[in-house]
């Protein structure tokens, strides 16, 4: 289908332009780098702490977990936030007025969000490599990290798109942070999940975040670090399976929800949301 | 109610449905909850025509346009836009339609030229033998008078400049049919004149069919080949500005001076009155002016009648006007 291919090309161009805009805009740079900086400070405070059965400092345990957590935050919050904002300001309606415009729009969003996720991961790992000893940083590590990044975004971006379709108010996106913070607490990000009671471990293992943390640890930590994990294994097959299931669920449901949302977009709907937003300000 | 719409339909019975028509709307209804916003709207537009849709706030102008754009589902009625039902328009159809909505705030971080070139990309595969799509970004920027702002970020544009960009985006795919919802809101007189020239150019050179809504009656008169007035959920008048004011039985105002004194008189029989005036006073009459009801007067009279409950008799009267008007136009 030549026309769809053309729209995909346009979408790739769109994502690239938006990424460049993010990279040249002070507010966006600040917004993207604030989280990594805060997390690095938290990890610095853990530099002297040790974990039972773990050969390195707690900071080195937390660093890969934090990267995994941020993949989920990017995939979920970034997409949801952009969808909600761009529905309100009319970007989505503009896409709807173009031939195959929605295809281009979604491809563009995937590129932009993946790019930002990559930048955030780099902003943690590069300073982390200098600040903390013990990370495994060979070619295999980078390949593993890239793999888990792609899989993680596949598992979380459709969920973010679904959330963004239901949120009618861009300012409500912040509320998503609450369950995500809760999830981070039970997913063994800063401390091993094996410290929690078993029932809590089961809940944590349902969601993508635990597996993202585990996946990045398997890529960036030396083999000896596996002793602290459940079953003393990196469980790479299970990681791919659980994230794969989330991806399939999301990819099946998201197009339906997105189409329903796009169908409802009209100039009047945009104007009404804008009117509401103005009322909130005054 | 049927007595009102019937004459309009009858007037069109001669022509085959949808044949050669860019817009063909019959019995369009839109209901929100228990209120009918559109209550049987009928009208057509032929290739290259500029049609202005007028009506009071809340009359359903935007709703009508959004149904035609395929952005909104209708409750009932037959609608054909470029020969296609807009509720089921495919991407091919989408590429032939240009849309300028009432307000946009999108793409604030993009630069003017960058955005136009990007949005143009989508139209590339839809070129035909006659129409090369998209419009070249630099030519288009020149056509809407934004050349000196081409590298500006969109959020830095003034309201009028932003609106010109909206129009440029609406025509970047060289549409065969263009919808403009209040295109000149926020324009200064110069920008307004330039916009009018652009509309004339689109309609004359590219024979783009244009449907626009406006609150500016002067603008409607200048731009439109045909004016539709939407009130009470129906099209209550359909004809050129001239036809509308001529057939409206409002009075004409006659002004003159005699012996240094000014006189004003309103009458429905202006020609006869002037004749009598000269018969009586001959050369003593000076500075004679006869003003027929302006489009504004006509519009106000029509809308007021339609909005007051006793609209039906008036509507029948205008159905007759419409009938004559359509015959004259055919």
Mean of pLDDT of chain B: 84
What is the CA-CA span between the terminal residues of chain A? 49 Å
Count of DSSP-assigned helices of chain A: 11
CATH topology description of the largest domain in chain B: Rossmann fold
Describe the largest sheet of chain B. Answer: 6 strands, mixed
Membrane topology (chain B): Peripheral membrane protein
Protein name (chain B): ABC-2 type transport system ATP-binding protein
Main location (chain B): membrane
GO biological process, one term (chain B): response to antibiotic
What's the short story on this structure?
The complex is a heterodimer of chains A (282) and B (330). Chain A is an all-alpha fold and 282 residues long.
What attributes characterize this protein structure?
heterodimer; A: mainly alpha; 11 helices; 0% strand; B: alpha/beta; Rossmann fold; 2 domains; 3-stranded antiparallel sheet; 12 strands; globular; disordered N terminus; disordered C terminus
Report on the architecture of this protein.
- The complex is a heterodimer of chains A (282) and B (330).
- Chain A has helices at 2-23, 26-45, 58-88, 91-96, 101-131, 139-166, 177-186, 198-206, 208-220, 236-264, 267-281.
- Chain A is mostly helical and 282 residues long.
- Chain A has one domain.
- In chain A, helix 1 packs across helix 5, helix 3 (58-88) runs antiparallel to helix 5 and helix 9 crosses helix 10.
- The longest helix of chain A has 31 residues, at 58-88.
- Chain A is elongated and about 60 Å long.
- Chain B has 330 residues and is α/β, with parallel strands linked by helices.
- Chain B has 2 domains: 2-96 and 176-246 and 296-329, P-loop containing nucleotide triphosphate hydrolases (Rossmann fold); 251-292.
- Chain B has helices spanning 2-12, 61-68, 91-94, 112-121, 137-143, 159-171, 189-205, 217-223, 241-247, 270-281, 295-307, 311-329; strands at 23-32, 35-45, 50-54, 76-81, 97-100, 177-181, 209-213, 226-231, 234-239, 252-258, 261-267, 285-291.
- In chain B, strand 8 and strand 9 (234-239) form a beta hairpin.
- Chain B starts with a helix and ends with a helix.
- Mean pLDDT of chain B is 84; it is low at 1-16 and 320-330.
- The interface between A and B is medium-sized, with 32 and 33 residues.
